[in-house]
Specification:
The complex is a heterodimer. Chain A has eleven helices and seven strands. Chain A has helices at about 1-15, 30-40, 45-50, 120-145, 155-175, 180-200, 210-230, 230-240, 250-290, 300-335, 355-360; strands at about 55-60, 65-70, 70-75, 80-85, 100, 105-110, 115. Chain B is mainly α. In chain B, α1 packs antiparallel against α2 (about 145-165). The chains are: A mainly alpha, B mainly alpha. Chains A and B meet through β7, α4, α5, α6 and α7 of A and α1 of B.
Amino acid sequence: MKRFLLLFFWILTLPVFAQEHHGDVPSTSATQVEATEEGEFKPGEMILHHVADAHEWHFATIGHSHITLPLPVIAYQSGKGLSVFSSSKLAHGQTYDGLKLEHEKLEAEDGSKVYDFSITKNVASMLLSAVILIVVFFAVASGYQKNRGKAPSGIQSFFEPIIAFIRDDVAKINIGPKYERYLPYLLTLFFFIWFNNLLGLLPGAANLTGNISITFLLALFTLLITIFSGNKNYWGHIFATPGVPTWLLPIMIPVELIGIITKPFSLMVRLFANITAGHIIVLSFISLIFIFKSVAVSPLGVGFALFINVLEMLVALLQAYLFTLLSAMYIGGAVEEHHHDNDLGFGGDHTHNPESAAAPH
Amino acid sequence: MNLITPDLGLLFWQFVVFLLLVFLLAKFAWKPILGGLREREESIESALRQADQAKLEMQALKAGNEKLLAEARQERDRILHEATSISNQLIETAKQKATDEGARLIMQAREAIQNEKNAALAEVKNTAAQLSIDIAERILRRELTDSAAQKQLVTDYLQEVKLN
C-alpha cells in the first residue's frame, strides 16, 4: 500500500514535467525544468498552457528529451485546399506548407484565413474515449446476450445500477412518460462526460471536458433537443405565460427567450469551469514546489494536489450527473403535458433548480 | 483568451464523434442493455406475480380441502346417525314383530285348546247320550220280558258304567 501511494505521488507529479515547451517560442515555452535553468518560472503560463489544447500530445520531458506523440494537422485554406501533415513538422516554431503555430494557433504565413481541423490532443483524447466507451458498453451489451434471464456478471453488473439510475432517477422522473426517446442521448451524455472527466485526471492526458468547445457543443445538443421537442404547453409558457397580464408580455417574452439560452449556457459554463478549475488547482499546488524552489514544500504541495485530485474524481462523477440531470429537467420542461400553477415561469426561474446549490466550485 | 473561445476544429470533430457515438451506442449498446434490463424486470415481476397467485391458489386449495373434509365429516356423522336410527328402528320392528307373533301363537294355541275342549265335551256329551240311549234301549227291551230282570239289568248296566 505504501509503495502504491509513493508510486501514485510520483505519477501525480508527472503532469508538471509533462509540461509542453516549444523551446524556440519563448512566450509559450514556460517549463519549470528548463525555466529554473534558463530563467523565471511562470506558473500562470505553465498552467494555462497545460489546460489548453495542443497540436501534439506531450507526455513528459526527461532532461532535455521530450516524449511526445505527433498528431496529424489538417488545415483548410480557401484556394489552397486541404493540407495534411504531422504536427512534428511544426515543432519548435518551424514553418511547413506555409503554416506555422503561433500560441498553439495554426496560422498561415501570408496571413490568409486557415480553418484548422487538426486532430489535436483533445480530439485524439476524445477519439480514445469514444473507443473506450464503445468497447466498454459493447461488452456490457454482450453481457445481456450471454446472461439472458440470469443475474448480471462482471462489467455488466458494475454498469447496470448506473444505467438503471440514469433511466429511473434522471430520465423517468424528470421527463415523464416520453423518457425513452431521450434515454440514448442522456446515457451517452452521462458516460461521455464521466469517462472524459476521469481521463482528464490522468497524468499527461488532455483536459477535454474542461474545454469550452466541448461543453458548448454538448449544451447546444441539449438546447436543440429541448427546442425541437417543446410542445404547445412549453411554447405557450414562453409566448403567453399564463396568469401574466397582457401589458407585461413585451417584458416577459424577452425574459423567457433569454431563459431558453441561459439554461444551456449555465450547463456549458458549469462543466467547463468545474473541470478546468480542478486542473488549475492541482497544477497550482504542484507549482508551489517550483515557486519556492524547495524540496521541503513538496510534501505539502503533493499532499494538497493528491487531495484535490481525489476530490476531482468525485467532481468528475458529480458534474456528469448534474449535466445529465439538468439536461433531463430542461427536456422534461419542454415535453411536460400538465400545467401546474406553482411552475409559473419555469423557463426562467433558477431558484428551485439544484444547480445553484450543487456546484462545488 | 483562448481558454474561453470555442475552437472550430474541435467543434467539428466533437460534433462528428459525439453524434456517431450516440448513434453507435444507441443501436448496439443502449438498445440491448435497456431491453435486457426491461426483460429481466418483467420476468422478475411476473415471477413475483406468479408466486402470489400460487400462494392464493394454495390458500384456496387448502380452504377447499378443509371444506371437503368438513363435508366428509358431516356426511359421516349423518350416515352414522342414519345407520343408528335404522338399526334402532329395525330392532324395534323386530321386537314388535316377535311380540305380535308370540301373541298370535298364544291366541292360536288358546283357540286350539278351546276347540279341543269343545270337541272333547261334545264327544263326552255324545257318548253320554249314546250310553243313555243304549241303556234306555236295553231297559226297554228287558221290560218287555220281566221286571225283575229289568231291575237286574239296570243294576248291571249301572255297574258296567261304574267300571268304565
